[in-house]
Amino acid sequence: MKKYLIVIFLVLFIYIPASAQFVLSPKTAYFNSNLKNHHCHYFDLSLDAMYAFKSGFTIMSTFDFPIVGNTEKPLEKYPTANGNFINSFMLGYTYKGIENLYITTTAGLSIGLAFLSHGYLFPLGIALQFDIQYYFNENFGISFALKEDALFLPYIKHSGFDFLNVNILKIGVAFKI
């Protein structure tokens, strides 16, 4: 078991950083969620971290924190959340055929956390993201992204689940590290 952990550590912290371009991209975003025709609109802070390999294979992780927004009307099952976030881990492809331009498409899994007045939820689902990054010099650029999360929300006191659709439009800076 100890040998497997050492191999995993070496791959994650030595092989991947040595063979891939690491991009860190803090962003602001518009976050829109829809649950049974119940819309919520938020201002979102986002952090995207990406490893783009020379072959184009991409590993991306995103952290989205909707912080300020409005809700049309609270639902009885899911009263307005006091704080929440969505974390996604995605795999995909980055096209680098145009100088100073990265075009990335990724898909993967999302897990969230919502703190409610009477407990908390762990939504789980599928994430898709389309990202365009243009670099002004070797290490600094601008990034635009569109992310879609299809999440399943378990009922708190009943059996079954609800479906939550989340759309996030992001803009920010990109740093190659």
Form type: globular
Q: Write down the CATH class.
A: Mainly Beta
Q: Can you give the helix content as a percent range?
A: 10-25%
Supply Rg. Answer: 18 Å
- N- and C-termini, Cα separation: 32 Å
- Estimated structural class: mainly beta
CATH topology: Porin
- Spans where pLDDT lies below 50 across 5 or more residues: none
How many E strands?
Answer: 9
User: SSE string, helix = H, strand = E?
Assistant: HEEEEEEEEE
CATH hierarchy: architecture: Beta Barrel
How would you explain this protein's 3D organization?
This protein has a single domain (2-176), classed as Porin (Beta Barrel). The longest helix has 18 residues, at 2-19. It has one helix at residues 2-19, and strands spanning 20-35, 38-53, 57-71, 83-95, 101-116, 119-121, 124-135, 140-154, 161-176. It contains 1 helix and 9 strands. The chain has an 8-stranded antiparallel β-barrel. With 177 residues, the protein is mostly beta strands. Helices cover 10% and strands 69% of the residues. The two termini are 32 Å apart.
Key features?
177 residues, 1 helix, Porin, mainly beta, 9 strands, 10% helix, single chain
Q: What is the element layout, followed by pairings?
A:
Elements: H1 2-19, E1 20-35, E2 38-53, E3 57-71, E4 83-95, E5 101-116, E6 119-121, E7 124-135, E8 140-154, E9 161-176
Antiparallel strand pairs: 1-2, 1-9, 2-3, 3-4, 4-5, 5-6, 5-7, 7-8, 8-9
Summary of the model, kept short:
By secondary structure, this protein is mostly beta strands. The protein has 1 helix and 9 strands, in the order αβββββββββ.
